[in-house]
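Practice problem: predict the structure.
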Amino acid sequence: MTEMNFIKVTQLKAMPISTELDLTDEAKALLTEDLAPAQYVKCLMDGTLYADAIMFLAASLSKRESTWWACLCTRSTLTDKSPISDLKAIELAEAWVYKPTPENCGLTLAAAEETGFKTPAGWSAMAAFWSGDNISPNKEAIVPPPNDLTGKAVNGAIMLAAVQGDPVKITEQQELFLKQGVDIACGGDGRLTNNG
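Answer:
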């Protein structure tokens, strides 16, 4: 992989991003004070610590980019046999990414609930909902979501998406999804070509 330039990650150092994450001991051992987020992700990828890298990148990206990444990974797992609730959840999450208005954000909660929070699509919709300004069901009471909720939902969506297919290919799926996330962090749209 060539040098990564995370233009979509505003934090200059990896350490502040990682403090609230439940990284493995192996991932924590690679972390140093001076590592930039791109360098840390590269270290994690080189060590095939894909789950840690996904968790870290989900927390590193802006809420919109992170949610787009979840949508992209989730969309790749949907088939013509996917439940209508999953299709609706992913469509509404994508609608929020394309137009992040309070109205579009608000629609994602009910869609996520319809999935029973058991699918990547449901967690993609929750990522969109938790990216808004208010998680209170009462519109008069403003309750801003904690900053880390979107990243947690994105991580959940991507990790669930990685186990949707052949169990033998989970690591391969995680690596592919991670490459998509890196592309987004570097300013791309995450839609990789077959040789991506």
